[in-house]
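Next up, a specimen:

>
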Amino acid sequence: FIIDTGDSNLRDAALQDETNKLIKYFLASLTVPEDDLWVNLSPYEKDRIIPDGFGTTEMGRDLLAQDYLLKQITSSLLYPDSDLGKKFWAKVYQKAKEKYGTIDIPVNTFNKVWVVPDKAKIYKHNNSAFVVNAHLRVMLEEDYVALQKNTHPRGGSTPGVDQLSTQIIRDLIIPELEKEVNEGKNFAQLRQVYNSLILATWFKRNLKENILSKVYVGQ
């Protein structure tokens, strides 16, 4: 394993610990069945948080922590006193005023956000494979479901003002979240998991005859 030291300035034992963690991510990605590589901290799905086997891995537990952080940051971006929150609520009330003639209406701001793999590029040289490009996509759940079913998103779970707030979340909040997920310090761990997952996926697809694949992949 060739590890990019990044800008953390880790040395000696600390760097070795971090390296071991990345190797564990790779092995978990290799051995956990692909359909079980997900986490979900939705308050409406308390019986669907993480698959049992995946929950015993360091990768699964770290992803749950990142999902919790994702929800905190999403809420903070909608907070009326933040810069982006002020823009969000100003647009919601402007659209509501234009459409309904009043701003005194309830607005549903619960929109489930998904982080999913977008694209990745692997460079192969001799006996080594390197992740040279990787991007994660952030989207609303209804857009993700529509993408999976090859349909168009409904633009909101209920008609009326909820559609307005959902569309404004798409326009304002989602791009900021996607930038933070792919570039910010808060989600460095998520990107480490993603890089390990990319390498494991490449390994599974290209080295099917390898003894490691035959004995461990998906097991």
